[in-house]
Write a structure and sequence with these properties.
Blueprint (H helix, E strand, L loop, with lengths): L1 H6 L29 E2 L4 E3 L1 H4 L5 E8 L2 H4 L5 E2 L4 E3 L8 E8 L21 E4 H12 L7 E11 L4 H16 L3 H16 L13 H24 L4 E5 L3 E5 L15 E9 L5
Parallel strand pairs: 1-7
Antiparallel strand pairs: 2-9, 3-10, 3-11, 4-8, 5-8, 6-7, 6-8, 9-10
Helix pairs in contact: 4-7, 5-6
Organism: Streptomyces nanshensis
Protein name: Dihydrolipoamide S-succinyltransferase
Length: 276
């Protein structure tokens, strides 16, 4: 939080650290339970490909610093206010109650992630924008928005912090300083996980930010899967914030390495064949 406060000095936009928490963002239990917002977490496997007997070599890739990359997202600045117009204002951000469109693709995961319940759902800004992008690309119909809770928004709230941490991380990797690298990873992950209703962070209470940042990480991974699919690679598995399994030459799309724009291979395996 000290790093965040330092990078906000002289900023153009003043954000609220303790706006009233909307009931939709409050957990249903004292110590456990979830609120009403769906983050779009991915947990998908390409089952038609997995049941095919043709052998395929698969590379499991790791998206570097997924949560840090998610700092580049539209965050609401102030208190969320209600809107039942059914329209989306790109200058605002928050949570939206939608009827999701059908997803009729077996070779790509749904942008809604591993949601197994049908019907209307409350989603965050990154998930809504991802669904709208899919609609523009002809992958699905546009989601129907019923109501929203939003505030004026900007992508720049965490931008200085993101750039600073990315720079320090890059230097630590160059000097093989794994202690600093792991410390930074723990710091920005804890920053996100405690900015909701956590008792471990008394300097900010923005559960809307927490959900939006997590959703942006899932959306970023989905976009990587889409990029691979468009390039003719088979998408085998997409999981969490950072795991992407592909067939084909993924190095045509990304450089290998540990920078935020690069991808890191974790392991290889073969699908299909006589041993499947």
């Amino acid at each position: 939080m000290a790093w965040f406060d330092h990078t906000r000095k002289g900023s153009r936009y003043e954000h609220s650290s303790f706006p009233p928490v909307n009931d939709l963002l409050k957990k249903t239990g004292q110590k456990s339970g979830a609120d009403a917002v769906w983050e779009g977490r991915l947990s998908w496997k390409n089952m038609p490909l997995r049941t095919d007997t043709a052998p395929r070599e698969v590379t499991a890739l790791d998206a570097n610093a997924a949560y840090l990359a998610a700092f580049k997202t539209h965050l609401p600045i102030g208190q969320l206010t209600h809107d039942d117009s059914g329209t989306h204002d790109p200058k605002r951000a928050g949570i939206h109650h939608i009827t999701p469109p059908p997803w009729n693709h077996t070779d790509l995961p749904s942008p809604l992630g591993d949601r197994r319940t049908a019907g209307d759902v409350w989603i965050t800004e990154p998930t809504l924008r991802l669904l709208q992008r899919c609609a523009r690309d002809g992958l699905c119909e546009a989601p129907a928005i019923h109501e929203s809770w939003t505030s004026g928004a900007t992508e720049n709230v965490l931008e200085k912090l993101r750039r600073t941490l990315a720079h320090v991380r890059r230097e630590a990797i160059a000097h093989e300083d794994e202690v600093t690298t792991e410390y930074l990873k723990a710091a920005y992950a804890k920053f996100i996980s405690t900015m909701g209703e956590s008792t471990y962070n008394r300097e900010i209470r923005r559960p809307d930010w927490m959900h939006i940042l997590r959703s942006q990480a899932f959306a970023n991974l989905w976009l990587k899967a889409r990029k691979a699919h468009q390039a003719g690679l088979d998408v085998v598995e997409v999981t969490g914030t950072d795991e992407l399994h592909l067939t084909g030459d993924w190095r045509r799309l990304w450089d290998e390495g540990r920078d935020l724009t690069e991808m890191k291979p974790k392991h290889h395996y073969v699908l299909g064949g006589s041993d499947q």
